Amino acid sequence: MTLPEEGRPSEAQSADADAQDHSAATPAAGSDNPLTASEPAATGTNEVAEAPSDGPDEVPAEALDETPTGPTFADLGLSAPIVAALTEIGYETPSQIQAATIPTLLAGRDVVGLAQTGTGKTAAFALPVLDRIDVRGATPQALVLSPTRELALQVCEAFERYASHLGGVHVLPVYGGQGYGPQLQALRRGVHVVVGTPGRVIDHIEKGTLDLSGITHLVLDEADEMLKMGFAEDVEQILASTPDTKQVALFSATMPSFIRRVSQQYLNDPAEIVVKSKTKTATNIAQRYLLVSYAQKVDALTRILEVETFDGMIVFVRTKNETEQLAERLRARGFAAQAINGDVQQAQRERTVGQLKSGDIDILVATDVAARGLDVERVSHVINFDIPGDPESYVHRIGRTGRAGRSGDSISFVTPRERRHLATIERTTKQSMTQMQLPTIEDVNVTRLTRFDDAITAALSQQGRIDEFRDIINHYVRHHDVPEGDVAAAIAVMAQGDQPLLLGPEDEIRNAPSRDRDGARGDRDARDARGGRERGQRDTPQGLAPYRIEVGKRDHIGPGQIVGALANEGGLTREQFGAIRVFPAFSIVELPADLPRGVTDRLASTRIAGREIDLKPDRRGGRSGSQDDRGGRGGARDDRGGRGGYRDDRGGYRDDRGGRGGDRDDRGGYRGRGDDRDNRGYRDREHQGQRRDGDDRGGYRNRDDRGPRRDEGDRGGDRDRDSRSDQGGGDGPNGRKPRWNSTDHRTRRTD
């Protein structure tokens, strides 16, 4: 069955889409409705064979039959009130994952579902859970864990829609970023289903405000994403806190070892259901990508908007906060832009979409969830300001252009460390993207002059008004003895205001190092004199500052848990994290220096591993001890080339530059360091010992251990200023060159 494009109920049915804190769900190619991506399969057993995936992680097995056989939701054994709600919404035919999972869960069996986002798995677990809810109870009977607050809200909304005919089913979302008051009040009144993020659920468990003794159903939605965000220990703690008799459904796009272990330890003989995802993109959409650093995305977008000829445009970002911020910045630069996100009321959303259709605005900044089902013919361009993490989200996004047989364009901003997402998308969609270059100053100036000419030509066509102003200008020329050309130029200055018409050399953008598709650097030597990889600037936002949190190695936490907790509680994206150092008793995290007061207050009360982190600015510049402890090595070391303490020019903290693990594709943003590298990070004073030869970066040393300065071969010593020239550091003649080759001179008109 194919639902009509307008008014379809796909938002609720594929409500498991990941949005705003990570990539959102998308339907398969050629359809905006996940129900049409893969039709139901007839099956006489709850065991469903695996199918090879077209995605980045293949699970070899026999594919489920995708030929529609016609079962309805009533045929799956759902109760009449739920079927009535689905009929009211407009659902008729179950998707493949729904047809296989619902009867299995109704039979009381545990399930492991391997399916990409956008396959309709929210309904696959929500419908059988609701079918077994006892509305007479007052304590939670079902718990759904989601990796992000946005997904939790979306799943909660889906539960409420499906339960509309059950009468009295109460569903509560619990997530970081919301005050405890409303959640506590709802829990006291009584709820049947709790949908929450692991961090906030743990908080309620430890406070004694969430009673899990009556849980009969537990769902892990997008378990692999929770693992990536550092919630592994939280998930296991929650599983261990619930009754052993509960039914468990685990859904994941991939099956890493941790997920496999959880399924073996906490699930009882689960049925494994795998859905093959077929993803492809339309051939009438030109797909390009731009390699750009996070900090330069807004300037890069501005140049593209100036140079590209477009009708309407949708710019996709990850979070709802970013939609408002980016739309405001674009309006400040003279573009007609508005934002829509999950918090926008439906009436306002309809007005904004109507403005895009009518041409009152040209740019819509949106999240994946807010743009689902959007069909505006005049959208000629889609910009992935933040590239999605999964291919199906990408397909959904670019499917907003190229409508009604028209051609379309998509441009994806890719930071160097996101090249793996690019490769995954290309491999899954079986289409390659063309790398584009950032428009140069010359390109922008030519475009501006052309538009200026066009504006003059358009004004000259208004003959009546021209005659009126001609008399005024002639009067001025006669009485002031000024050439007409000078008067025209003065009028242009009045019209232009303080904004210069043309860009100058000072408007040049410094970009991240260009790389070829294999990741090789194209604008500098790959190796330096030490035989090691040349160090470059980190690809992190400008204006980071060190913050201290009161959890560390003794709490058995690593950078992953820190990123997951702070991202969920503070609404932060991974690009807003800089270096993270984990010490025994505390950790230092680089975050934006201009974090709003409300965010810092919220983060201060966040709990990681059961401890309140008490986040606050680190006044000692990220140093782990006093100068006495460090042998006087802290502070600003002007005589040593500014190599101590917090180092803006190189990013990160000196003490922990040895940890090379984690996500290091471009040395930028959050870098996960292995916690077990005692010989390369913080070292206890009793174990300082002598400095080892070679590439030893052991951080915590006293003055006596410093040894002679070495210029090459040893990464442990500090080099003098002259030794930095081979690294391209600094701002002098040997400093880094701009990474985008742009024309520095102003474009001038020639007659």
Report on this structure.
The protein is of the alpha/beta class. The protein has 21 helices and 20 strands. Helix 3 runs parallel beside helix 4. It is globular and about 95 Å long. The chain starts with 9 loop residues before the first helix and ends in a 134-residue tail after the last strand.
Question: What would the average pLDDT be, to the nearest integer?
Answer: 72
Shape: globular
Give the terminus-to-terminus CA distance.
63 Å
Strand content: 5-15%
**CATH architecture label of the largest domain:** 3-Layer(aba) Sandwich
Radius of gyration, in Å, reads 29 Å
Discrete helix count: 21
Largest sheet: 7 strands, parallel
Low-pLDDT runs of 5+ residues are 1-68, 511-541, 624-751
Spatial order of the strands forming the largest sheet: 3-4-2-5-6-1-7
The portion of residues assigned to helices is 25-40%
How many domains, as an integer?
Answer: 4
CATH topology (level 3) name of the largest domain: Rossmann fold
What is the total tally of β strands?
20
